[in-house]
Amino acid sequence: MHRSIWAAAIVSLTGLSTVSEARESNTQWVDTFIGTGGDGHTFPGAVVPFGMVQLSPDTDNPMRGVSPQPEIYKRCAGYHYDDTTIVGFSHTHFSGTGHSDLGDLLVMPITGEVKLDAGTAEDPDSGYRSRFSHDKEWAQPGYYGVELLDYDVTAELTTTTRAGMHKYTFNSAKDGHILFDLTSAIYNFENKVIWSDIRKVDDRTLVAYRATNGWARNRQMYFAIQFSQPIDDYQFINLDNMRYRCMNCLDSKQKHSTIENKAVKMTAGKAVKFVASFNNVDQKPVYMKVGLSAVSRSNALENLQTEIPHWDFEKVRAQAKQDWAKYLDKVDVEGTRSEKRQFYTALYHALQAPSIYQDVNGQYRGVDGEIHDGKGFEHYTLFSLWDTYRALHPLLTYIDPDRVSGMIQSMLVHYQQSYEKMLPIWSFHAHETWTMIGYHAVSVIADAYLKGIRDYDIDLAVEAIQSTANNPVYDAIPEYKKYGYVPMDVLPESVSITLEYAYNDYAIARMFEAMGKNKLAQQYYARAMSYKNVFDPETRFMRGRDSKGNWNKDFNAYEAKYMGPFTEGNSMQYSFYVPQDVAGLIDLMGGDDAFEKRLDDLFDTPLSADMIKEHEDIAGLIGNYAHGNEPSHHIAYLYNYAGKPWRTQERIRQIMDTLSSDKPDGLAGNDDVGQMSAWYIFSAMGFYPVSPGDLSYAIGAPQTPKVTLKLVNGKTFTTTAKGLSKTHKYIQSVSLNGKPLNRNYLTHADIMAGGELKYVMSDKPNKAWGRDNSARPPSLSEYK
Question: Measured at the alpha carbon of residue 442, what is the angle toward residues 437 and 444, in degrees to the nearest 5?
Fold first, then answer.
């Protein structure tokens, strides 16, 4: 039975009708399996918008570094569509990252013999994992279900913000078990678990704790677990001692009844597991609720009791779906079934992070490891800023600006709590990973401030921005300020770092100028021109240079070398990373025609595998354009700045047609916490924020006939594409609220004013539209 049929069956069983499906409108278009194949690295499980809990199946568990690295990378989200076995269901997951961690508190319902190890995908019978089939797997926003074939158990999952709810229907067995494996994680490094414990509070309640060393060091999580019926038997397993823990028996492998035995009620160590056993499970499903907290067991229990005070699984599921409908219905899309599925699934993925990292009582664990009171604002985690500053955060300013303020306040308390006095770089779960480059939190703050989103401590934001952009301990900032670039003999990835610092400084300048801090603004505008210092006029490429000013002798524009001058990219790609001053870059490259040719060379010149063999993130290739990695995301829109917008229109269609689909492998690379999805959403509407903070959007070409944004100010902004088809990919003309729009960009003010942006499409390009200098998006060198 295919999962869509199963979904219909589940709807029927739960009393939900096609009428209610229609009422919940746009949730029906989400396919949570898009991106779970290939290298999309998304997960299909249950989560609510910005939820702290991501309750999802794990299809493999690479143990202690045994699996080859590509297999680890393949399963960064815990689940991969190619797999055929499920290890269990864990409560925390990344969506679309290039790194693996999390997978907290793995749970697996089983029947028959209790096996303590997961076993292998090659030999599922050797452990507690189970085979499954996509034909008997189904999901909707906020809900996931699957048949565990080896146990004949129907597993169903749903969530609130801070708690998950499980429903296990044992279809044939009379007795059933639920295994908790606190050793399991998404990619188990050797000795990843620092410490863990699990305690039986009463015959329905457990509490647990785990601290891990993974990508984040000494990351702590607490759990409160409740069952819908009493536990009939139980086992504590502590593999540290290589035996079952028992204080009051001679047989160390005896299994204990909660009624007949007064055995120990807890165990602790680095390799702890627990089995809860239930009799007569064939008579009714076993329900389980799990609350999470990074603060304490009592907070985890409070989160659980506050958010799920009952045992009505369908009520929780319906509320989760309603939460998603509230967000997905903020945008109405007309188009083909495939277009709607891609658009709404992209929106679904874009609204999962940053995620809440705060208990219902306001407490949260800070980056200093201490417990803080966050009453007065919502505290968030998971800031993948090198990725998400580009399009995800600009998108959130329209979808939920109130949350943006909370996210910025979360960044500001991160700054206050950090020893280095830095805004976050790539942070999650109270830890800074220092992954990737730049200080892109300043872009998020500046873009929001300039759009009027200011419900946070503005003075603190100015302080944090200044401290971060001038921090003497972070990635050669002193050398950047001294030389006007980061020398390659001081730090690897020096060219990329220089270019991204320069953009960040532009965003700072824009914000400070708007605040009337003109002297400071001019300092940062000057720093924003630093990109010129790594542009080699001889080769007309961005190129590494040392502290003596000498150019890199081993320069190869096509090579993406690990620890080389560029970050997950090559000079072909990064030579276009001057989003703040594309007009200035065009001049350096020799003018409009030369710039167009360089863009064509990027898209049309094949990139050999040997040139990118050290970087698995470089994916989704069209020539040297790598849609699967963020440094390429703005490039297709740069033809606009050379007065050739019809070329952008061609490239956007090329990318959409070849690198996006509504299939499990429909993402060209890992989604990077919603960034690729946000690119899709903007591009489907026909415009994109090339340089967040300048409040302009380069117009590309719409990919859907009609999109309506429902803005928080009560207005709507609608894009319509008259005559759009597979052949009619070119813009013939554009009008805004009935008046001709001759510039090839939009502004934030245009969007917030509401109204209609109407594209008239043709099978032939209009080479006159958007060509004049005055029609091109703004650039720093033109208006500074």
Answer: 100
Q: Which two tokens stand for residue 384?
A: 């993948």
The length of the chain, given as a count of residues: 784
User: Within 10 A of 284 (CB to CB), how many other CB atoms are there?
Assistant: 11
Burial class (CB in 10 A: 0-12, 13-18, 19+), 248: exposed
Buried/exposed code over 482-514 (b: 16+ C-beta within 10 A; e: otherwise): ebbbbbbebbbbbbbbbbbbbbbbbbbbbbbbe
127 Cβ partners below 8 Å, 6+ apart?
115, 117, 118, 119, 120
d(CA 744, CA 751): 14
Distance CA(48)–CA(34), nearest Å, equals 17
Average predicted confidence (pLDDT) for the chain: 91
Amino acid 61: pLDDT: 58
378: enclosing H helix or E strand: none
Q: CB-side exposure of 649: number of CA atoms within 13 Å?
A: 29
What are the beta bridge partners of residue 273? 181, 237
Instruction: Tell the residue number behind the tokens 């278009």, with chain if given.
Output: 29
The per-residue pLDDT for range 268-286, each reduced to its tens digit, is: 999 999 999 999 999 999 9
Q: What is the pLDDT of residue 566?
A: 95
Place of tokens 């979360």: 410
Angle at 301 between CA 300 and CA 304, to 5 degrees: 90
CA distances to 56, 96, 137, 579 from 45, rounded to whole Å, are 4, 13, 11, 36
45-84 exposure pattern, b = at least 16 Cβ within 10 A, e = fewer = bbbbbbbbbbbbbbbbbbbeeebeeeebbbbbbbbbbebe
**757 vs 739: CA distance, rounded Å:** 9
Query: What Cα–Cα distance (Å) separates residue 270 from each residue in 198, 207, 212, 295?
Result: 11, 16, 9, 20
3-state per-residue secondary structure call for 609-673: HHHCCCCCCCCCEECCEECCCHHHCCHHHHHHHHCCHHHHHHHHHHHHHHHCCCCCCCCCCCCCC
Q: Which two tokens stand for residue 64?
A: 């202690």
Instruction: State the DSSP string of 153-180.
Output: EEEEEEE-SSEEEEEEEESS-SSEEEEE
How far from 79 is each of 166, 351, 705, CA to CA, in Å?
18, 19, 34
684-724: pLDDT as tens digits? 999 999 999 999 999 999 999 999 999 999 999 999 999 99
Quick one: average pLDDT of 771-783? 91
Domains with residue ranges and CATH for the chain: 3-322 (2.70.98.10)
Torsion sign across C-alpha atoms 333, 335, 336, 342: negative
Q: How far is Cα 314 from Cα 320, in angstroms, rounded to an integer?
A: 10
Give the pLDDT band of residue 251 (cuts 50, 70, 90): very low
State the pLDDT at residue 244: 42
Q: Is the pLDDT of residue 4 over 80?
A: no
Which region holds residue 738: left if phi is over 0, alpha if psi is between -120 and 50, else beta?
left
Contact by Cβ (8 Å): 431, 211:
no
| CA distance linking residue 99 with residue 427, whole number of Å | 12
What confidence tens digit (pLDDT) does each residue in 16-30 have? 333 344 455 899 999
DSSP per-residue letters across 55-74: BEEES---BTT-S-HHHHHH
Res 765: pLDDT: 97
Average pLDDT of the segment spanning 189-203: 88
Helix%, strand%, coil% for the chain, nearest 5: 30, 20, 45
As given in the structure block, the two tokens for residue 386 are 């090198």
300 within 8 A of 207, measured Cβ to Cβ: yes
- Residue pLDDT, tens place only, 62-75: 543 344 444 677 88
| 242 vs 570, residue with greater confidence | 570
Q: Return phi, psi of residue 508, to 5°.
A: -60, -45
Average pLDDT over residues 537-552: 97
Q: For the ranges 238-252, 717-731, 757-771, which has the lowest average pLDDT? A: 238-252
